[in-house]
Design brief:
about 675 residues, alpha+beta, Ribosomal Protein S5, domain 2, Rossmann fold, 4 domains, 26 strands, about 20% strand, elongated, binds adenosine-5'-triphosphate, HSP90_C, chaperone
């Protein structure tokens, strides 16, 4: 006798909300129905362990998904514990539907601004996102249970009667609505299953009732009783004609006649029921870690190294975090951390659980204890979630400091790749910064990696408590050469993150000053000026300033005249450290396309070398025919070696250079 009923949901107000709410994630019903099947199987396995149920010997637990594009349907079939009629009534008619209603009541006003992580809690009901009609055929594992057939058109009225399912388990069939037909395409189905179900704990098989049958050929001894033999293939013996000892031709058998079978292609599960993170770290090989990385992240660059998280107490958390090889020119610094709950995919990069700076890594984290059916803002304030996030941070810091201490060689090798990540971590997370502080490295001009204290120690004699750094290798090449010639050292801090990081370092190390290599000329490069020459040099400096101001048509120009040891250097530009940092900050806050030079080239000083012949020539020929041009040229050369010229100056520079060459050529 069929039982009919009305699901106590008012369809007019519920459906629009559900549809809008789940609009972007319609595919989620796959996850919900497959994980319900997994749960049903897991429960039955538990009953077996408890001795309450005896598993038939030849039974393999599995979930089958069959797409049918002709019928426009998808079938989900599990051999889990099934349901009796009372259970369908309770779990589906009452709980699933009232659950959906509660859920909506609670979240309908927050649909957009406060998303619920992974939309957990909608379960079975999510089938109605994509289907007009849903049927359930189920048979409980309990002895003597009768099969149940249930169906509902549209999700508000149902009909339930005795069914004809002969094997225990549950089969749910969705007849898709017109907007959702994509989901019965086998390739689309595979894509969604890859996204949500790749690591679910029960084997999942996908097939399509409309696709051509596929076959494979196996050796005779590989045949099992599960295979369907289509054809027996007899491979004839292979022979070869050779000459025997007596010079007579002879036919010998190279390989004997063989029997092979053409069988129906054995089904291959779409998922991996034992993801690597569940294995004990001691049992995982390097190759396993690498192939897992390739498979999950589709990244064919090898990861540098990884951390296997494995924690049972006080919470359960497993996962693998990989440090990817960065290609700083092309890759944005953005990784992916995939979050799972008992092998069910939730979402990528959930910042409430995973510290922001760790999102530069690639990895998987499985935390069955996470309260996922709550809103994101609630999760943010959850002490438990904070603990998880702290634990992950600590583990990452431990790994890095451990490597610094016991495997310095590799740590140095990885430094160029991992330093942006570590520095970002220092800026974002105080605890991480504290832990990692002594393991920070600085690459110097010789390509050696030094800690800050090594750096300070090595340069104690020449410039105590200050560290020179290079912020742009190309722009500062002239200074780098001068430093090298003078036996001075500097460190490379050339990544974008280094500009805020230098500020951070000074804050942490109050008595240490970081100076860009072009910020000032150290006494080391200068010759000492004799007391009796100082007066004359001062007058010359004033004269040069005036000449340059006139030539460059500038009212004010900072000019410094120095006796540099290297007489070949004529002019240079230095930028005071404060104004350099100010400009960097401006650069960070300006819109792309805006010219940072519009904030003025403040803090720039033109340094002229008193020991240079051209500078002396200018002093000797203040009214010379070419003096103006030489001044301009010297200024532009200094600007060029310091960075770049504005387009207007560059045009003039090229024209003037040509004129100067004409003078040289005397034509
Ligand atoms: N394939 C199945 N086999 C056996 N029981 C099932 C199956 N699918 C659903 N059920 C029963 O119906 C109930 C309701 O399912 P539903 O998916 O709506 O919620 P849930 O799985 O309990 O919670 P969640 O919101 O996490 O999905 C389940 O708790 C389960 O008892």
């Amino acid at each position: 006798m069929a039982k009919t009923g009305s699901l106590t949901i008012n369809s007019e107000n519920i459906f629009p909300i559900i549809k809008k709410w789940l609009y972007s994630d319609h595919d989620i019903f796959y996850r919900e129905l497959v994980s319900n099947g997994c749960d049903a199987i897991t429960k039955l396995k538990k009953l077996e362990i408890m001795g309450e149920w005896q598993k038939p010997e030849d039974l393999n637990f599995k979930i089958e998904i069959i797409t049918d594009s002709n019928e426009k349907s998808i079938t989900f079939k599990d051999n889990g514990l099934g349901m009796t009629m009372e259970e369908v009534d309770e779990y589906i008619n009452q709980i699933a539907f009232s659950g959906a209603q509660d859920f909506l009541e609670k979240y309908k006003d927050k649909a957009n601004e406060d998303q619920i992580i992974g939309h957990f809690g909608l379960g079975f009901y999510s089938a109605f996102m994509v289907a007009d009609k849903v049927t359930i055929d189920t048979l409980s594992y309990k002895e003597g249970a009768s099969a149940v057939h249930w169906e509902s058109d549209g999700g508000t009225e149902y009909e339930m009667e005795e069914g004809d399912k002969a094997e225990f388990g549950t089969t749910i069939k969705l007849y898709l609505n017109e907007e959702s037909l994509e989901f019965c395409n086998e390739y689309r189905a595979k894509e969604v299953l890859d996204k949500y179900c790749s690591f679910m704990p029960v084997a999942i098989y996908l097939s399509s009732s409309s696709s051509e049958p596929q076959y494979e050929t196996i050796e005779k001894d590989e045949l099992t009783d599960k295979d369907t033999v289509i054809e027996t293939i007899i491979e004839e013996a292979k022979t070869e004609e050779t000459e025997n000892e007596n010079g007579e031709k002879e036919v010998v058998e190279v390989s004997p006649a063989k029997e092979k079978y053409k069988i129906k292609k054995r089904p291959v599960p779409v998922n991996d029921v034992n993801p690597l993170w569940n294995k004990h770290p001691n049992e995982c090989t390097e190759e396993e870690y690498k192939s897992f990385y390739r498979k999950v992240f589709n990244d064919y660059k090898e990861p540098l190294f990884w951390i296997h998280l494995n924690m049972d107490y006080p919470f359960n958390l497993k996962g693998i975090l990989y440090f990817p090889k960065l290609n700083l020119n092309y890759d944005s610094l953005e990784g992916t951390i995939k979050l799972y709950n008992s092998q069910v995919f939730i979402a990528d990069n959930i910042k409430e659980v995973i510290p922001e700076f760790l999102m530069l890594l690639k990895g998987v984290i499985d935390c069955p204890d996470l309260p996922l059916n709550v809103s994101r803002s609630a999760l943010q304030n959850d002490g438990f979630v904070k603990k998880i996030s702290d634990y992950i941070t600590k583990k990452v810091a431990d790994k890095l400091t451990g490597m610094f201490k016991t495997d310095r060689e590799n740590y140095e090798k990885y430094w160029d790749d991992i330093n942006p990540f570590i520095k970002f971590g220092c800026l974002k997370d105080e605890k991480f910064a504290e832990k990692i502080n002594d393991s920070l490295l600085f690459k110097n001009l010789d390509g050696k990696y030094l800690t800050l204290s090594d750096c300070l120690e090595e340069n104690k004699e020449k410039h105590e408590n200050s560290v020179f750094y290079i912020s742009d290798e190309k722009e500062q090449s002239q200074y780098i050469n001068m430093f090298k010639e003078a036996g001075m050292d500097a460190v490379y801090l050339t990544h974008n993150i280094d500009s805020p990081f230098v500020g951070y370092l000074e804050q942490k190390n109050e008595n240490v000053k970081f100076l860009c290599i072009n910020s000032d000329l150290s006494d080391i490069f200068k010759e000492e000026v004799k007391e009796e020459d100082k007066e004359a040099m001062k007058a010359d400096a004033e004269a040069l300033t005036e000449l340059f101001c006139k030539a460059l048509n500038k009212e004010h120009l900072d000019v410094k005249v120095e006796k540099l040891k290297n007489g070949n250097v004529s002019s240079m530009i230095t930028v005071s450290e404060e104004s350099r940092r100010m400009q960097e900050m401006m650069k960070m806050y300006t819109m792309p396309g805006m010219d940072p030079s519009m904030f003025g080239a403040g803090g720039e000083t033109l340094v002229l070398n008193y020991n240079n012949k051209l500078v002396q020539y200018i002093l000797g020929h203040k009214d010379g025919a070419h003096t103006n041009a030489i001044c301009e040229q010297l200024y532009d050369l200094a600007a060029l070696s310091h960075g770049s010229l504005t387009s207007e100056r560059m045009t003039k520079f090229i024209a003037r250079s040509n004129e100067l060459m004409l003078v040289m050529a005397e034509v």
